[in-house]
Amino acid sequence: ISRDSVGRRRRLQVSDDDPPIFALRFSTTTHVILRDLRIEGKIRVEGGSLEVNNCTLDGLHSEADAAASGQGAIGLHVSGGHVVLSQTTIVSFEGGGIEVAGLEDEKLLQIESSVIRLNGRSGAARMGGISAIGGQVDVTNSLIEDNGFASRDCDANKCVRGGGLRVDASGNAMAPCSVEIRRTRAGPSTS
Question: Choosing a second label site near 3 at 20 to 30 A (CA), which of 11, 57, 140, 158?
Answer without folding.
Answer: 140
